[in-house]
Amino acid sequence: MLKFSNLFKNLKAITYTASEMSTNAAMIIKKPKYDGRTKKRKWEDRRSDKGAGLYSEKKICEEPFVRIKRRKYVMLLGYSGVNYFGMQRNPSMPTIEEDLFNALLKADLITQEAFDQIQTVQFQRAARTDKGVSAARQVVSIKLPEEVSVAKINEFLPDQIRVFGVKRVTKGFNSKSQCDARTYTYMMPTVAFAKCDTEADQETFRLWEGALSEINDVLSNFKGTKNFHNFTCKKQYQDPSVKRYIVSFECESPIIRKGVEFVVLKVKGQSFMLHQIRKMVSIVIAIVKGCIPLTTLSKALSEEKVNIPRAPGLGLVLDFVHYDNYNYRYGTDGIHEVLEWKEVESDVDDFKEKYIYPTIVDTETSEKPMLLWLSERLTRHRFDQLDDDGKGSGDEENSDDDEDTKDEKNDPKSVTETDRGIV
C-alpha cells in the first residue's frame, strides 16, 4: 500500500512539473502585444511635416439635426419623352427621373443622400418607358415629407414634364407590384393601312368604308391570355413569363391633324414585355395592308417562330395605370383616396394636347417616320426569315430599346385572367 502511495506522489510531482514547464515555455515565446498607435507615431515622425498633412480637420456641424417625418405617397405625372432616353435614371443621359429627382431636391422634398441613393425613400415607378416614349398618366411611389406642394415641384420641372397630383397611400404601397393593368395608346397616320399594291399620299389618304371594322377584327385576336414569345426578344415558348393577358385592344375613330388623318390604337393589358406593343401594332398593319395573311398572326401566337419587326416608337404613350384592387380595399376606408385621378383629368387632357400629341403630329408631318418605316422596313420584311438561332433578324435585336415595361420577373399572376379577376 505504501508503494502505491509513493508512486501516486511521484506521478503528481511529474504532472506539476510538466504543467510548470508548459507555462514557462508559453511565457518565453509569447510576443509583446501589438501597439498600432506607437507604430503610427513612429511613421508620422519620419515625415517632414510630422504627419500634419495626413488628416483634414474634422468639420463640426453647427446646425442641430432635425428628423423629418415622411409618409408614402403616389405621384401622378405626365411627360413628353421625345428628347429623353427613357423614364429610368441613366448616368450621363437625359432621363425623366433625373429631372424629377432634381426638382424634388430643389423643392426640399428629398435630401442629397436620397438624391444619390433614391432607394432610401422607397422610390418605384409603375412602368418603365424607354427612349422617345411619352406618358400621360405615369405613377410613381415615394416617401416624402407630410407637407407636399405640387406647384413647388412644377416650378423646378421643364415644361414637358408635369406633376398633376400627389396622394397618400398605405405604408407598404408599391406602384409597380400593386398595379393591376396598364393602358397604352399608339397614334399613327392612317396611310399606314393603305394596301400594299397601291400608292398613297399621306396628306390625301383617308380610310375606306369598313376599314375600322376590319382593323378591330384583327385587333380582337389579341384579347385574352396569349403566348407572346414572338413579340419580344430572347424568350422561348415554354417560358411562363411570355403569357400575358390582354383586356382590350381597339382602334378609335380617325381624326384630322394638320391635314393628315390619324387614328389611335388603345390597348389595355395586365403587363407588357419589351417591344410587345410595337410588334403587335406592326403585325396588325401588315395584315390590314395585305402584306401577310391573318394566319401569320395565328402562327405568331403559337409555338412556331415568326420574325416580327417593330413599329416606330414615336406614337407610343402610357395612357393610364390601373389600381382596381387597391381602390376596392383602401379607397373607401376614410383614410386613403382612390387612385383614379378624375379631379385632374382636364389638366391631363390639356397636357396631352399641348405637349404629347403635337410632338407626334409635327414629327409625322415633317419627318414622316411611319412612311419611311413602311417603305424601308415593313414592305421588304420576311416574317418567316429567321437567323440560325431562331431569334429573328439581328438588327431588331441590337437596336435601341424604345418600348414600354420590362418583363415582370416571371410573375405567376400574369399567366391567367382568372387569377387577375378582370372581366
TrEMBL record:
The keyword tRNA processing applies. Pfam families: PseudoU_synth_1. Residues 395-405 have a biased composition (Acidic residues). GO terms for biological process: mRNA processing; mRNA pseudouridine synthesis; tRNA pseudouridine synthesis. Substrate binds at Y184. Transmembrane segments: none annotated. The keyword Cell cycle does not apply. Its EC number is 5.4.99.12. Its main location: nucleus. It is found in: Nucleus. Residues 384-394, 406-423 have a biased composition (Basic and acidic residues). Residues 384-423 are annotated as: Disordered. InterPro entries: PsdUridine_synth_cat_dom_sf (IPR020103), PsdUridine_synth_TruA (IPR001406), PsdUridine_synth_TruA_a/b_dom (IPR020097), PsdUridine_synth_TruA_C (IPR020095), PUS1/PUS2-like (IPR041708), TruA/RsuA/RluB/E/F_N (IPR020094). Keywords: Isomerase, mRNA processing, Nucleus, tRNA processing. One of its GO terms (cellular component) is nucleus. The active site is at D130. Gene3D superfamilies: Pseudouridine synthase I, catalytic domain, C-terminal subdomain, Pseudouridine synthase I, catalytic domain, N-terminal subdomain. Residues 221-324 form the Pseudouridine synthase I TruA alpha/beta domain. It catalyses: a uridine in mRNA = a pseudouridine in mRNA; a uridine in tRNA = a pseudouridine in tRNA; uridine(38/39/40) in tRNA = pseudouridine(38/39/40) in tRNA. Pseudouridylate synthase that catalyzes pseudouridylation of tRNAs and mRNAs. Acts on positions 27/28 in the anticodon stem and also positions 34 and 36 in the anticodon of an intron containing tRNA. Also catalyzes pseudouridylation of mRNAs: mediates pseudouridylation of mRNAs with the consensus sequence 5'-UGUAG-3'. Acts as a regulator of pre-mRNA splicing by mediating pseudouridylation of pre-mRNAs at locations associated with alternatively spliced regions. Pseudouridylation of pre-mRNAs near splice sites directly regulates mRNA splicing and mRNA 3'-end processing. Monomer. Forms a complex with RARG and the SRA1 RNA in the nucleus. Belongs to the tRNA pseudouridine synthase TruA family. NCBIfam families: hisT_truA. This is Pseudouridylate synthase 1 homolog. It comes from Photinus pyralis.
